[in-house]
Specification:
- By secondary structure, the chain is α/β, with parallel strands linked by helices.
- Helices cover 34% and strands 12% of the residues.
- The protein has 14 helices and twelve strands.
- Strand 4 and strand 5 form a beta hairpin.
- The two termini are 22 Å apart.
């Protein structure tokens, strides 16, 4: 069937980083401080937040999920709803801003693989079900994400990975998504990976996992992955990196109408200098809005990390839309203006009719997916097409001659990376 002409309400939100204590605020939970943070977010005209419980604090023992911690999460959700903010919750934190947060019952003397150990799996399953169930009756609850980029624990460059196969990753994802569904039936639960899933050969979490499991595809776009280093802060590849990942996800999706959530994107200095951050923000958002099927954009992050906290990578301190004192920064004003511009407007970008072929090998395992990474032939050809003014999408080599697949996506022209020089849209 041909691509549908559909329109929906675009979502604009932010990943919530508390001003007091960062994510350690769960240790000293202060609802008044949270409310003040949420007031400053709501004042930007955003409509949702993504929230991060710290797994070791919520489940310090495999058979203890702290009721008080769960209640604090619910109170945060209610405070958000009072300010017109919907809430998405990540469960297994997991990994945040270069720090790992794993419970003691998975480490050192209790070292167990977090993706395969039967007891760990049962504990995770019950934890995710419990959080989902606690929020299930809240109308502002959008659903669960299993964890923040938890795929980084499965492979290098993590210094102590829990090695698994792609088949074991499938089993873990399916089991944890099912736990969320039991807790909050019918809501759009999903999982999220950092870009090794799209770019790193042999990584056990694959593009097929990202684009086929869960209610929608989550994309995390960070240009410090070699994109900005190679193309500069104003390069087409840099300003369209998020759009590229959105379109790349469609190459593996089985449903041509599967929604894609740009769940994390930010302007990391010095790769994006401060004096270029507003331009980068506006370009990234507008380029992403030119992608069919975009569910919404959730910026990283709400508030800057306090300089009183030690040992963060330098770029992590200044990623907020607002300062740690809740003052609005230029990037915050830029995103607020874009959200206001699109409020109430239907999102119906033109179909992308030119598709670049992705030959990453077997579609399930994608053993040569590094062709899609910065510097790879697919990535660089897509960037060249975009710089020429084209609006390319991507298609797997397995589908490049499948007329039914191409028609369903509205694709009328297919080219390989080698042919890019003669193609225009």
């Amino acid at each position: 069937m041909p691509v549908q002409d559909t329109a929906h309400r675009l979502r604009f939100g932010v990943n919530y980083t508390p001003t007091h204590g960062w994510f350690h605020h769960w240790l000293d939970f202060d609802l008044d401080a949270v409310r003040a943070d949420l007031d400053s977010i709501a004042a930007l005209g955003l409509d949702h937040i993504r929230v991060f419980p710290l797994w070791p604090l919520f489940q310090p023992n495999r058979t203890l999920i702290r009721p008080r911690a769960v209640d604090q999460l619910v109170r945060l959700a209610d405070a958000a709803a009072e300010r017109g903010l919907d809430i998405s919750v990540d469960g297994l934190q997991g990994h945040l801003s270069s720090f790992d947060f794993l419970p003691a019952w998975t480490q050192t003397w209790h070292r167990r693989n977090i993706f395969t150990d039967p007891e760990v799996l049962a504990g995770q399953e019950e934890y995710l079900r419990t959080l989902a169930a606690a929020l299930a009756d809240r109308p502002a609850f959008l659903g669960m994400t299993l964890g923040n980029e938890i795929n980084q624990f499965s492979d290098g460059p993590h210094p102590d990975p829990d090695r698994i196969t792609a088949k074991q990753a499938t089993a873990w994802l399916e089991r944890m998504l099912a736990a969320c569904e039991r807790g909050a039936p019918g809501l759009p639960h999903l999982h999220a990976a950092y870009d090794a899933a799209w770019y790193r050969d042999g990584h056990p979490f694959t593009p097929a996992h990202a684009a086929r499991l869960g209610a929608m595809t989550a994309v995390h776009s960070w240009v410090f992955n070699g994109t900005a280093q190679r193309h500069g802060p104003a390069g087409t590849a840099t300003e369209q990196h998020a759009a590229y990942l959105i379109e790349l996800s469609k190459a593996w999706a089985l449903d041509p109408h599967r929604p894609v959530w740009l769940q994390e994107v930010g302007a990391p200095a010095p790769h994006v200098p401060d004096d270029h951050a507003v331009r980068f923000t506006e370009a990234t958002v507008r380029n992403s809005l030119d992608c069919h099927g975009l569910w919404g954009i959730t910026w990283w992050c709400s508030h800057d990390v306090s300089r009183s906290l030690a040992d963060f990578p330098e770029l992590e301190y200044g990623l907020g839309l607002l300062g740690n004192d809740r003052t609005v920064k230029p990037v915050g004003r830029a995103l607020a203006a874009l959200a206001a511009e699109w409020r109430g407007r239907p999102h119906r970008p033109p179909v992308r009719r030119t598709a670049l072929v992705v030959d990453a090998g077997d579609a399930e395992a994608a053993p040569r997916r590094s062709v899609c990474a910065p510097g790879g032939p697919v990535f660089e050809a897509w960037a060249e097409l975009a710089a020429q003014g084209a609006r390319p999408t991507l298609v797997l080599a397995q589908h490049a001659s499948d007329q039914r697949h191409l028609t369903a996506r509205g694709i009328t022209e297919v080219c390989t990376p080698e042919e890019v020089g003669s193609v225009s849209d």
